[in-house]
Design a protein that fits this description.
With 170 residues, this protein is mainly α. The protein has two domains: 67 residues, no CATH class; 74 residues, no CATH class. It contains eight helices and no strands. Helix 1 runs parallel beside helix 3, helix 2 crosses helix 5 and helix 6 packs antiparallel against helix 7. The longest helix is centred in the C-terminal third of the chain and has 20 residues. The radius of gyration is 17 Å and the shape is elongated.
Length: 170
């Protein structure tokens, strides 16, 4: 897992609509700059409302506006150095896809994310400078379709997953 700073922040509403984060993933996204204090609190509130209730998440969900200084402290208690960064790669790519027309070079941003996340094989087909398999079609349209398919598959994978911190309903 590489250490990097986020290229842009991702709003809480987008995150909660696209992925169910574990507490460690929430902390990871916060400390890498994908989330600000308010977004972290909002996601914690969403996690509590949907059944994830470890103590630090409950505490984070109860932080008031004048107590934002507590966010870093609380998330520092649950940051998991072993947590996978792949949910953040997906969220960044999906956010960028939805906002690609707001950027002059979205394919360059994909290439930067590819490097920042350690050149993951599952997004090789999204990076403009990686060679296509012999005989495979190429071009911007092919990249766009691959990007859409990656986002679709990952949305299914992350949106409704249960994490080890979910409460069990009998």
């Amino acid at each position: 897992m590489s250490e990097y700073s986020a290229l842009f922040s991702i709003p809480a509403e987008f995150v909660t609509s696209r992925a169910r984060l574990s507490p460690g993933e929430l902390a990871y996204g916060y400390f890498r700059g994908w989330l600000d204090d308010a977004a972290a609190i909002s996601i914690a509130e969403h996690l509590v409302a949907t059944g994830t209730t470890p103590e630090p998440i409950l505490e984070l969900a109860s932080v008031f506006g004048q107590e934002h200084w507590r966010v870093e402290q609380i998330l520092g208690e649950i940051e998991d150095k072993e947590v996978s960064d792949q949910v953040w790669l997906y969220l960044a790519l999906d956010w960028l896809h939805d906002h690609r027309y707001e950027h002059t070079e979205p394919l360059e941003i994909i290439a930067a994310l590819y490097a920042d996340f350690g050149y993951p094989n599952d997004i090789d087909s999204l990076v403009y400078y990686t060679p296509a398999p012999p005989g495979a079609p190429t071009g911007a349209g092919v990249l766009e379709k691959a990007w859409e398919e990656y986002s679709r598959q990952k949305r299914i994978e992350y949106a409704n997953r249960r994490t080890s911190n979910d409460t069990d309903e009998a």
